[in-house]
Amino acid sequence: MSNEFEFDSLIKKMADEHQPQLPTAAQIWWRAQIRKKQEARARVERPMQMMRTVAIVICGAVITALLASQGRSLSGLLESRGLMALFAISAAVVFLLSFAVLLWPAPRERQSRAQMIRRKPSY
């Protein structure tokens, strides 16, 4: 029981002594400028991201249509050599890797954003 009482009194004492430190006006302005630049960059990059997505979907549809239309001739050619499974697996891997590249942001970009936020204004 005494441990709980001591713990409660310690917590109350710490809460009474704590003075929250608000950021300075310069820090608030700096962070607002960073956010403004990031939002402008995202707005500019959004059409490019959409076009990449559309291009990948169209390429996938074209490849699927070609495989569907020429499937019998390709399967006859590849089955004779036993490469149909290898071809299907490699096509799936290339397709999945293209989506991974599309969705994964560049490490340099992530690092620079984190550094910009942590950096303090120099004035």
Structural account:
The chain has a domain at 38-123. The protein is 85% helix and 0% strand. It has helices at residues 2-17, 25-69, 71-81, 84-103, 107-118. The longest helix has 45 residues, at 25-69.
Summary?
This protein is mainly alpha-helical and 123 residues long.
Shape: elongated
Number of strands: 0
Helical content class? over 70%
Give the overall pLDDT as a whole number: 76
Order of helices and strands: HHHHH
The proportion of residues in beta strands is: under 5%
If you compute it from the alpha carbons, what radius of gyration comes out, rounded to the nearest whole angstrom?
Answer: 28 Å
Helical run tally:
5
Low-confidence stretches: none
For the record, give the distance between the C-alpha atoms at the N and C termini, rounded to a whole number.
53 Å
For the biggest sheet, the summary is: none
Structural class: mainly alpha
Topology:
Layout (H helix, E strand, L loop, with lengths): L1 H16 L7 H45 L1 H11 L2 H20 L3 H12 L5
Helix pairs in contact: 2-4
Features:
123 residues, mainly alpha, single chain
